[in-house]
Amino acid sequence: MGKRTDWLIQRRAGIGGSDAAAVLNLSPWKSALELYCDKIGLNEIEDAEPDWLYWGKALEPVIAARYEKETGRTLQDDGEFNIRRSAHYPWMCCTIDRSILGDKPGILSIKNVVGFKKAEWADEPPVEYQIQLQHEMIVLNRAWASFAVLFNGNDFGWYDVQRNDRFCAYLTQEEKKFWERVQNMQPPPPDVPADSCREALRRLYPNETGSTITLPGEFIGLADRIEAIKEQAKSGKRELDAAENKLKAAIGDNTFAVLPNGITFSLKTTKRAGYAVEPTEFRTLRRVKG
Known about the structure:
Shape: globular
Strand order of the largest sheet: 1-4-5-6-7
Order of helices and strands: HHHHEEEEEHEEHHHEEE
Mean pLDDT: 82
Structural class: alpha+beta
Helix content: 40-55%
Distance between the termini: 47 Å
Strand content: 15-25%
Low-confidence stretches: none
Largest sheet: 5 strands, mixed
């Protein structure tokens, strides 16, 4: 078993910093339900690091050194797989990137951000990362923390963050509720993001039992809403087909069409390989991004 795998298994015994936003359903990558599935062991653990994570870790020392140079602060590496636990809240844990040493020690979070994501940091660090740092400040009882960020491999920035005691009290309360659900095997309700919840529900309930359940009256409105959304989708699909057919007819046997405002469409032939069905060819209309 690799160190990373062992670390991931140990993290299942509590809520880590990168889990905190998911508990509040404010993570862009994972819902509370998906996090629940992970904590009860339904998600597979992969020892291999994806490339984005590998390069993020590889660049950490470089980014940390630049932070020290820019701020004059001294950092300490506490270890890549060192899990720290709260003395007051046993379900809260974290693995920090660096400690900031001094009379009032802080926490440093190191981020390697691809260029097109820089806009998300324009006014302040993204909310999911701020929640992560607030969680870590609770665990380590620190009053402040900082971000060191490398944008697109050549643009450096850093941001200090103060502990928000009011938010920390709320986060602690919500994490406690979530951990009680994990211990009692009570899944949180499915919520956003939908893809994460869909995959989590597939793991939670992989097979049907053949039995029937009577749902409470509140689900009548939900059922009506589902049907209404389906009808809207059908109506929208018919309108979309009609509009695309009109545009295809105008393009005719040409490959591209340009509008007076510069928007370009392509109408190219797409080949579909023949497997269980006969091979076919059809033309696909796409708006060309430029």
